[in-house]
Amino acid sequence: MTRIEQTDDLETLAERAGRELEDAPAPDILRWAADTFGPRFCVTSSMEDAVVAHLASRAFPGVDVVFLDTGYHFPETIGTRDAVAAVMDVNVITLTPRQTVAEQDASYGPKLHDRDPDLCCALRKVKPLEEGLRGYDAWATGLRRDESPTRANTPVVGWDAKRQKVKVSPIARWTQADVDAYVAEHGVLTNPLLMDGYPSVGCAPCTRRVLEGEDARSGRWAGSTKTECGLHG
């Protein structure tokens, strides 16, 4: 079948799998994705931690792990990416925006992230990911329902209508305690910033430490109404 002819079947497949795998363990969800899509399946990672990459590497050794280098990352995030590439059985693929930060500053003015964060995210995250996912039919994320109200209904397998792809969120039902337990049991790499008051790690200009009692993502775009970068909207 051609890619276009598959689209309706992929949507039906995603909706059915979402129902059938709702209560399945994360490794089983990833094995289903690996068996169903093979090399047309990838994992995306912000390198906040490598939990989903680790889970996927056991279901599909050598799986592609796609990372968006926005040009604004903390050094710790780039270091985590490099460590994942060095020690895990995955193929890390780094995507970059069409413009460097300097080129974007020249086109739009400096600190676009302060003046129009939605446009900055669109240019440095959303567009590069759309281009980078063209060779895949399905992609996995680390989204969890407990992270924020906007993610509370995340399906374990769903249909990404914007990109016309199957979207797999194998740890959607996990809690932070589940993540912590998995990291401890398997010695999974995590971003050092998680131990320094940043429970959610994004681009440096738009991420601050979280105060006691705040939800995990309150440090992202603090002081604005923005809650998501657009990758999952």
Automatic annotation (TrEMBL):
CDD domains: PAPS_reductase. Its EC number is 1.8.4.10. Binds 1 [4Fe-4S] cluster per subunit. [4Fe-4S] cluster binds at C120, C121, C203, C206. Its cofactor is [4Fe-4S] cluster. It catalyses: [thioredoxin]-disulfide + sulfite + AMP + 2 H(+) = adenosine 5'-phosphosulfate + [thioredoxin]-dithiol. InterPro entries: PAPS/APS_Rdtase (IPR004511), PAPS_reduct_dom (IPR002500), Rossmann-like_a/b/a_fold (IPR014729). Belongs to the PAPS reductase family. CysH subfamily. This is Adenosine 5'-phosphosulfate reductase. The lineage of its organism: Bacteria, Bacillati, Actinomycetota, Actinomycetes, Kitasatosporales. The gene is cysH.
